[in-house]
Design a protein that fits this description.
With 253 residues, this protein is mainly alpha-helical. It contains 9 helices and 2 strands; from the N terminus they run H-E-E-H-H-H-H-H-H-H-H.
């Protein structure tokens, strides 16, 4: 905790230094009882450290989006949301429950990948057996392997062609900058495919209920009002949450 506080303090000081560097030769920031003076950087290493802190803060601000897109979370949350809409209850379960379940399933599915990152990169780095660059390279490899298994070759070729990269001889020759977006659009396609299949039985119930109401002359009664209990009953009888969770989990293995 103390180490995190020190890093945060250094980051704040670095940003202040970058912001005030062009304002004065000896900028001073003061508050009641507190005075902070930022002297001009005398050595190039000092400027480099400030830039590194700025880049680090930028990466940390983008980290949540990267963690969401580089894992199984995208597919899971889309499928669960489509299930909710297919049943006809767009607010039940609430968003907090859907996102919470998606996060839990994501941790369960990504556990083998995180274990590899921990064993190959994090622990050796903490034990000072490897440097930071080597740890980063080792940490990326299990994540790339996971993304390769879920990404279509067609999507990878798309971004390789648009990026002007040469045709790779091995998977190691495919840059992460091309693999990442290819993985995302592959996940979106898979999620929508699974959602379409889930929609079919509920759509059949809506059509049957609409036909029955129309044949009975009850045109003023909304079909969704009558079909909703039947769709919920069907979902409960077939143990829908078990089937969907099982299908989502097995789709990654």
């Amino acid at each position: 905790m103390q180490r995190n506080k020190k890093i945060l303090l250094l980051a704040v000081v670095g940003l202040l230094a970058l912001a005030l560097a062009g304002c004065s030769t000896n900028p001073e920031l003061s508050a009641p009882g507190v005075t902070l003076t930022v002297d001009p950087a005398g050595q190039p290493e000092q400027v480099t450290s400030g830039v590194q802190l700025l880049v680090l803060l930028t990466v940390l601000s983008l980290a949540p989006a990267v963690l969401v897109l580089a894992t199984s979370f995208t597919r899971i949350v889309i499928v669960l949301s489509m299930v909710r809409n297919a049943i006809g209850t767009p607010t039940i379960p609430p968003n907090q429950v859907v996102i919470g379940l998606s996060i839990l399933l994501t941790f369960f599915i990504m556990t083998p990948v995180y274990n590899q990152v921990n064993e190959q990169a994090l622990q050796p780095y903490l034990d000072q057996q490897i440097d930071q660059d080597t740890a980063f390279e080792r940490a990326v490899e299990p994540v790339r392997e996971f993304m390769f298994k879920q990404t279509r070759d067609k999507d990878i070729e798309l971004f390789m062609d648009m990026g002007g990269y040469e045709r790779p001889a091995t998977l190691d020759d495919i840059p992460t900058v091309a693999l990442f977006p290819a993985f995302v659009i592959s996940e979106l396609r898979t999620a929508f495919t699974m959602g379409f299949i889930i929609y079919i039985p509920f759509l059949v119930i809506d059509l049957v209920v609409s036909s029955v109401l129309l044949s009975m002359g009850m045109m003023m009664l909304p079909p969704s009002l009558v079909s909703l209990p039947f769709k919920i009953l069907l979902f409960v009888l077939v143990d829908g949450w078990y089937l969907i969770t099982r299908s989502l989990t097995l789709s990654f293995f």
